[in-house]
C-alpha cells in the first residue's frame, strides 16, 4: 500500500520509496533552472520531477517537531493577493516562515490598487522595497507574467484568472503520487466547471507531462471550446466519463466568474454532475477523490464522498504547504548569493 494512504495525514517522518529520510537541501535535490514559477506550461518533465522531489523532502520536514529550515533567512517574501484566498495565501505564508523568510501579506483592499494604481505602478513600488520573492494572485490572466517582467525578484503565480495555478497542480500530483505510487498510466477525470478553472488547465498540462490519461467531464456550457486539443478525452455524460477512472478530481462552480446562466439550477447540476456514491461506484473500486477547495457541498460533491474513506481532500492541504516550500526553496537558489 502506498505510504500516503497507510500513514494518514500526520504520520511521523517517513522513508519514501525505500530512501533514507533527507532534509531539504539544494545540493541533493535536482536543480530547478527557472527564476520564476509562472505556470506549468514551459516546465519540462525533469523540472516537475525536481520540484516533486523537493516537496517529498518538505513533507518529511513538516512532520518533524522542528519544522524550520532557514534557507530563506534574511529574505523577504511578499504575498500579493488581488483575490480572496484562505488556503493558498495561508499555505504560502506558512511555507515561507518554515523556510525562515520574513513574510508580508499585502492587503489589496487597503492598498493603492483600490485607489486606482495600475499593476505596473504597484510592481514598481514593490520592486523599490527590494523583496526577494513575490507571490501573486490576480483576477486577470497574464497579470502575473506582466508583473514578473517589471520586478527584479523571483515571482510565483498563485493563480491568474482562468489561466494557471501551478502550485495547485503540483500539490495534486504529489498527493496522487504518494497514494498511487506514481502517475504514469493512471486515468484522471477532472469534473465540473472546467471553463473557468485555472486548476483544470494546470492539472491537464502537468498530468499529461507525467504520462497520465486525462479526461474532462462537464456540461457543454462549462467546457472550453477546443479543450480536446490539450490532449484530453471529453465527456458531457459524467457516468460514462467516470468509468475506469483511478482519480476523480472535482471542481467547484465558479459563479463569481459567470456573467450568464451556465446551468439550469444547482439542483439539476448536482443531479447530473455532482459526485455522490452512486456515480463514484462507476470508477475503479480503489479510485480516490480530490478537490482543490473551497468545496460547495451538495453542488459538485456530497458530504458523504468529501468526508469518506476515498477522499484525499485534507491530505491535499498538507501537500500544499510542502509543495510551496519546495517552490520557494528552488527559486531561492537563483537569488543573489542564494
From TrEMBL:
Residues covered by the Aspartate/ornithine carbamoyltransferase carbamoyl-P binding domain: 35-177
GO molecular function: amino acid binding; aspartate carbamoyltransferase activity
Membrane-traversing stretches: none
Pathway(s) per entry: Pyrimidine metabolism; UMP biosynthesis via de novo pathway; (S)-dihydroorotate from bicarbonate: step 2/3
Gene Ontology CC: cytosol
GO biological-process terms attached to the record: 'de novo' pyrimidine nucleobase biosynthetic process; 'de novo' UMP biosynthetic process; amino acid metabolic process
Residues in Aspartate/ornithine carbamoyltransferase Asp/Orn-binding domain copies: 184-330
Binding-site list for carbamoyl phosphate: 87-88, 137, 165, 168, 293-294
Catalysed transformations (reactions): carbamoyl phosphate + L-aspartate = N-carbamoyl-L-aspartate + phosphate + H(+)
Binding residues for L-aspartate: 115, 198, 252
Record EC number: 2.1.3.2
Signal peptide as annotated in the record: none
Record-linked PROSITE patterns: CARBAMOYLTRANSFERASE (PS00097)
This protein's record includes keyword Transferase: yes
Region span, Disordered: 1-20
Keywords: Pyrimidine biosynthesis, Transferase
Pfam family membership, one: OTCace
Function: Reversibly catalyzes the transfer of the carbamoyl group from carbamoyl phosphate (CP) to the N(epsilon) atom of ornithine (ORN) to produce L-citrulline. Catalyzes the condensation of carbamoyl phosphate and aspartate to form carbamoyl aspartate and inorganic phosphate, the committed step in the de novo pyrimidine nucleotide biosynthesis pathway.
Subunit structure: Heterododecamer (2C3:3R2) of six catalytic PyrB chains organized as two trimers (C3), and six regulatory PyrI chains organized as three dimers (R2).
Family listed: Belongs to the aspartate/ornithine carbamoyltransferase superfamily. ATCase family.
Name of protein: Aspartate carbamoyltransferase
Source organism: Methylorubrum salsuginis
